[in-house]
Amino acid sequence: MLVNILVFILTFCIMEFMAWFSHKFIMHGFLWNLHADHHKKDHDSWFERNDAFFIFYAVVSIGFFLLWQYDILEIGLAIGLAIFAYGLAYFTVHDIFIHQRFKLFRNADNRYAKAVRRAHKMHHKHLGKEKGECFGMLVVPFKYFKK
């Protein structure tokens, strides 16, 4: 049981790095065509092409659930749940809190919430795929905690 908890925590933490890496080198790289509409909306739909990235990580998470289910990987459940939990945290922070795709958490007024919004605003000031900054989500550089 302790191993599963540690694997869950470690996987959740690694997902922040994976989010940063895939955002910087994949979304702002060879799959920019899927991510571009997130920086500059070019459609009338509530959905964005950028939402396809959620599907990729959902499939990876399901894959680990299946590896556990069929007794191929004992820690598969912990990994799958951690990827799911990170995805839920990412969706809550990025899509609900920052971009207000659902009108919730509008009045969050603490240092961390303000730092997350500042960092993401700096990321979105660049409309193209080059010259970006702040590619992570939950770990925010200290400079954005300043008033």
Distance between the termini: 42 Å
Name the shape in a single word: globular
Low-pLDDT stretches: none
Helix and strand composition category: mainly alpha
Please give the largest β-sheet.
Answer: none
Strand content: under 5%
Give an overview in words.
With 147 residues, the protein is mainly alpha-helical. Helices cover 63% and strands 0% of the residues. The chain has 5 helices and no strands. It has helices spanning 2-30, 32-39, 52-69, 76-98, 111-124. Helix 1 crosses helix 2 (32-39). The longest helix has 29 residues, at 2-30. It is globular and about 45 Å long. The chain starts with a helix and ends in a 23-residue tail after the last helix. The mean pLDDT is 90.
Secondary structure layout:
Elements: H1 2-30, H2 32-39, H3 52-69, H4 76-98, H5 111-124
Helix pairs in contact: 1-2, 1-4, 3-4
Search tags:
147 residues; mainly alpha; 5 helices; globular
